[in-house]
Amino acid sequence: MSKRLAAEFIGTFWLVLGGCGSAVLAANFGGDGNPLGIGLVGVSLAFGLTVLTGAYALGHISGGHFNPAVSIGLWAGGRFEAAQLLPYLLAQVLGGALAGLVLYLIASGQPGFTLPADTAGAFASNGYGALSPGGYSMTAALISEITLTAMFLIVIMGATDDRAPAGFAPLAIGLALTLIHLISIPVTNTSVNPARSTAVALFAGSGALSQLWLFWLAPIIGGVIGGSLYRRLGQPDR
């Protein structure tokens, strides 16, 4: 069990450092119009690449969840034991939080660094209303996070099904997370992962912390919906 928890800790650390790090350090590098900034597409790819590489590196040890909503969704889908949920969730949250700290230490090493707290997307944080990159409402944020997390679980469970082509699951899952970010960065800055949201909210100010509840509730609801749907959908025909 200790090795699995360590793998979840490291994998979530990698996801937050790679995905949120790309948003904080590289998305707008040099200011508006700088050709070296990776922008929305680059950040979306970075999140997908962290899951893809993390799953290939660590998935055979822990299953490569790196996300409380995924662990809970897999439990709802009959793929994960309830007794392992709390240890997995703790490992994921702690791994993400350490990545948030490391990212903060790196970012603050730039001369003149200031953290624009309580603004949309500050330190790669998630938000709705005034803290949504596009000004989207709480209702829109809930719908987006629930729907996209549900679809993420369907992709995860389908790609890892015994009947699916072997060896390609991390690729499908990573590309799905890329697509999810391409859709929803303007809405919520894309969570679908409570550990990722918590990791940066700790440094992004009271506004991000006050809205963090949504980025636990909605992904968990979406994970349960997606896991439950695939549990029924994936049953062999009789």
Automatic annotation (TrEMBL):
GO terms for molecular function: water channel activity. It is found in: Cell membrane. The record marks 20 as: Involved in tetramerization or stability of the tetramer. Channel that permits osmotically driven movement of water in both directions. It is involved in the osmoregulation and in the maintenance of cell turgor during volume expansion in rapidly growing cells. It mediates rapid entry or exit of water in response to abrupt changes in osmolarity. The record marks 47, 181, 190, 196 as: Selectivity filter. This is Aquaporin Z. Keywords: Cell inner membrane, Cell membrane, Membrane, Repeat, Transmembrane, Transmembrane helix, Transport. It is a multi-pass membrane protein. InterPro entries: Aquaporin-like, Aquaporin_transptr, Aquaporin_Z, MIP, MIP_CS. Homotetramer. GO terms for cellular component: plasma membrane. It comes from Stenotrophomonas koreensis. A motif (NPA 2) lies at residues 193-195. It catalyses: H2O(in) = H2O(out).
